[in-house]
Give the backbone structure.
Amino acid sequence: MRKRISKKNEVSFIETSDLNTVFSIRKRPDGHFQFYIETLNFEEEEDVLYWSQDTLPRPSLFGSVDDAKAEIYAQFSHLMNPN
């Protein structure tokens, strides 16, 4: 498996309960935050090939990491570990 490498402007990330998806929160040059979705791609059932990333961030801009995390949990709570 190709190891997932954090991007240089990544400030936080959240993994889903199945560990196949990562929400990457990144700081923009203008000081706002956006999140991207990265997923594992499989060649066969058990052979992981590589991490792929959305080519575009989610459309919303956030003023803080906490705001971005709140939106991720609001939109994708079905993928998260129950806490």
